Amino acid sequence: AVVSTQSTGGCVTLANVCYHHRSLHALIVMQGGVRHIQLAMRSHVSNDLVQRAACGAIANLALRYDDIRKQCVSDGVLKNIINAMSAHKEEVEVQEQGCCALCYMATNQPEI
What gap in Å lies between CA 2 and CA 57, rounded to an integer? Predict the structure, then answer.
C-alpha cells in the first residue's frame, strides 16, 4: 500500500507540475518521466487513483508539443491509457483523464 501511495503521489505531482509549469515538459520527458508514469501504470493496474493521475500527467504532457506526443506514441503510452480505461470502466475520472490523454495525443498525429 505504501508503494501504491507513493506512485499515486508521484503521478499526481507530475500531473500538476505538467499542468502548471509547461516550461518543464521537455525536462520531464528527457529525465524519463514518461517511462516512470508507464511503470506506475503497469505496476498498479488495479489502483484507480494511480491510473487517473497517470492519465492526467500524460494528458498534460501531450497537450502542447508534437515531439512529446510522438515520443508518447512511440513509447507505447496509448496501450497504457487504454488498459487503464478498460480496467476502470466505472471510474468516471479515469475515463475522463484517459479520454483527454488520448485526444491530446492524437492532435496533429495523422497516423493514430
Answer: 21
Report the alpha-carbon distance of residue 49 to residue 84 in Å, rounded: 10
Taking only the tens place, the pLDDT of each residue in 53-70 is 999 989 988 887 788 888
Which is it for the CA torsion 93, 98, 104, 107, positive or negative?
A: negative
Following DSSP, what letter does each residue of 46-105 receive, concatenated?
T-HHHHHHHHHHHHHHHTT-HHHHHHHHHTTHHHHHHHHHHHTTT-HHHHHHHHHHHHHH
Pick from 78, 70, 82: nearest CA to 109: 70
pTM of structure: 0.85
> Using CA atoms, how far apart are residues 104 and 56, in angstroms rounded to an integer?
11
